[in-house]
Amino acid sequence: MSDITANAVVSMPSQLFTMPRSFKAVANGKIYIGQIDTDPVNPANQVQVYLENENGTHVPVPQPININAGGFPVYNGQIAKFVTVQGHSMAVYDANNAQQFYFPNVLKYDPDQLEYRLSQPDGYLLVGGLAEHYSLPVKFVVVDNAPYNGDLKAALTAATSGSVFWLGKKTYNITGLYGVNRNTVENITIVGAGMPQLSSDKRYLMDGTGTIIQGTIKNQAKGFKIFNLGIDVGDYVSQNVYPSVTYEDGLQHYGAGSNANLEINNVKLLNTVTDPSKPGTHSLLLEQLSGVKLGYVECIGGFHGFTVKCQGLQGGIAHCYGQYGDAFIFKSDSGGACADNYMERIAVGLYDNSGWPDVTMGGIYDAHDNVTIDRIGIGELIVQNASWGLIPSDANTGFITNVSIGRYSAFNVYGNYYSLTIDNKCVGWTIGEHRISNASGGIRVHPDSVEINIGTGSSKGNTK
């Protein structure tokens, strides 16, 4: 006969057929199988039972099913597996034809039914604790599918809290979406298909090499997360894609407040590199907020690269190059203190600078408006082929306290500066292992600075 879908095993919930008040087998008893909530002894109520062979095929068998002396159902004297295609009732009679058990719906009690229930679309609801730990986003949006068909600007305009936007390996134009306005919808996530490549002329990110968003992203809402893509506000986009020539920050998080819960990882940011006007843009700006988790970010060009004017940054790696102002900056001002910020590594410059119009500028600390910078940690600071490593701003009026750099390396750093300057506003600085060579200067410590600790290392082949 044609095969069936065996949904239910014919057995008692205890698997072995035993007497109700002892562990004795229901020897030489009989089993009747019928429709749910009916008397299965009545032939009119009975459902078809099948014998399941070892090869998985099924053969219909008559009722009742016999029970051997050991309490197992048998067919022609052999212990066998019996199944049905539906839920059923069951009656078990002993050798004296006295009913010992009746189950109106065996599947209600059958442990094997758990697998079936878990396989249903709502099966996850049977597992306790999932809602607390694995709540699904409110809305998954594959932007290349209907209704947006690749229009990321329209998708972001229609975003609701909890939306997750999935992007492909292509270019998305959102120029004009954010200008003076910023995103205010909380818990938005944007996920790309990988960071793209930079064109040889340094003017744009190359289509088809990764996910590219053309145009600035500005946010002031909590819970914004962005991963695995590039943001292009470089020369070409600024001059040819925007309706009129517009210079913008790449990614700007501003005013999200405390417990901002922001995340950034595997994001490449391109600002202007070749424009002679050198507009004062930021690659990545974090300002007036606390609570940022950063993985890897690559800041290319612009005036300010990696700009930290926030609190509670737990960072991984920032690679900054091509800037004509400063590669990175830690800054406090009247808008808020820069404090409690930690990075695993900050790398400035490139091993090979050929083809770049400007030498990369270095890092700056700026305690502006007499507001202290406090508790800054950099596991490793690497500077190569740049103008300097880390120096104070000319407008540095506040104190810079409790700064730690675990390892400092500077190679080919020339700009009429010491590669690292600790000025008279610095208190409680620790520089660990250091290697400086072929620089315009090594490490300069102002005599009025306080509690400065510098570990072992070398500084050689320098001008100063």
Automatic annotation (TrEMBL):
Coiled coil: none annotated. Residues 1-113 form the Bacteriophage P22 tailspike N-terminal domain. SUPFAM superfamilies: Head-binding domain of phage P22 tailspike protein. It comes from the Bacteria. This is Phage tail protein.
